[in-house]
Amino acid sequence: MKILVSAKRVVDYNVKVRVKPDGSGVDTANVKMSMNPFDEIAVEEAVRLKERGVATEIVAISCGPAACQETLRTALALGADRAILVDTDAELQPLAVAKLLKAIVAKEQPKLVIMGKQAIDDDSNQTGQMLAALLGWPQATFASKVEIAGERATVKREVDGGLETVEIGLPAVVTTDLRLNEPRYATLPNIMKAKKKPLETTTPAALEVDVRPRIATLKVVEPPRRKGGGKVADVAELVAKLRNEAKVI
Amino acid sequence: MTTLIIAEPGSATLQPATLHTVTAAQKIGGDIHMLVAGSNVAASAQAAAKIAGVAKVLHADAAQLAGTTAENLAATIVPIVRSGGYSHVLAPATGFGKNVMPRVAAILDVAQVSDIVAVESPDTFVRPIYAGSALATVRSADSIKVITVRSTGFDAAPAEGGTAAVESAPVAADTGLTKVTGQELSKSERPELTSARIVISGGRGLGSAENFKLLESLAAKLNAALGASRAAVDAGYVPNDYQVGQTGKIVAPDLYIAVGISGAIQHLAGMKDSKVIVAINKDPEAPIFQIADYGLVGDLFKIIPEFQSALG
Hints:
heterodimer, A: 249 residues, alpha/beta, two-stranded antiparallel ribbon, B: 312 residues, 9 helices, globular
């Protein structure tokens, strides 16, 4: 069984992002970039399925500028077998990415696509659901456990009230939540090996996908700063302030 | 210009997030219709008809719409959107809305604007990005705007005062793509996290699931909901539905009490719009203190019982 996994390149989750003074966006120049953490979980899940003998091949995809090759090399070092970069400097929005992935699915014919539930830059939480819709496939979003048996998958999903278990037929799209697994670190020998694994490049034009954005960003600002830093000496003062000053208890 | 709101049905009535979505729709302007789709959701449809500002309720009821299965819901929603000529389709940005709305948008071949916190005009909205580190003002060029609404950005519309007619809506045939086979829902005496007036959240500092009970009795005293940081959920102290943060629940109660939480940006993203924030942590350098109105440095295992008895 072939599995496709997504690997989006995003600003590293430890970086404190800064809004550009001209309000055009956030500053991503000279900022550490990494694989979207939810995509790391997706890659890890695929690798575990391969280790269990369920998956036979893992193909990692990234859409974006040439620098996404780094992200794909990370996916290869974690255990993906080969990688595809959809090379473009254009701004990509979730619907466009879903269409690019759909075109790749048509070529690769995977049984399963595993993706992060959201990317930690635009926080959209859309692409997996959109891909499933475009393909007419089932979607098991926010997965915290995935079990595959033949042509079916049983997925435990994180929902607002707790957990929900769904049964889906394959092919399908699964999106990962935090508790699905704990991704491994790439070892040095695997990083070296990853350099030799195949990485193919294509473009939106070659895939015949119109990626023009539907949404224009007019401005980006910093949120109003919260005036914090107040301290109380003890519980008595805390309770008095909550009662008499804040009047919330 | 007419907006269709996809209501999130509950067991007896609508989920409160739906009421906040109504307010967002009012800011957009035009008529507001509400689709209540699910299995055995007549009570929710009746509740929808009473919401002030809702002009018409569409009620789609079928066994295959049970649970939160996006496939059958989207198949039912899309023809209603097309035939109704709706300009906007809104849903709360809850687990329910996040699951189904992108599927609806993709079938309609339109973009989705996720998690809006303000409406500037019928096509321009404000949404947080980078875990709330920035606010983006975005304009959608699509003919149908598919939007999810963050509840903390909008007040709840009055649940009473409306007299909308309830019409039954056509349900699409079962796609057969997904079957819900089980649910493990957390049972709690406490109020629901996203709509509670007071929230007490625990972090890694609690140290164990056993210790989390300390917070339970304080929460009972304050009639507060219980939440947690990602670290506490990952450590298994509490179930996943307690998680407050960028990828968990977004809350903005009158009072948020963070106990043993250091305050990673991913956690702050889920609670920094709370009216009053209390932080209790033994590390005076913990980032949570920078946004807290009342910080108390000390051992939570001493402070929490003291706090509880001080409440009388």
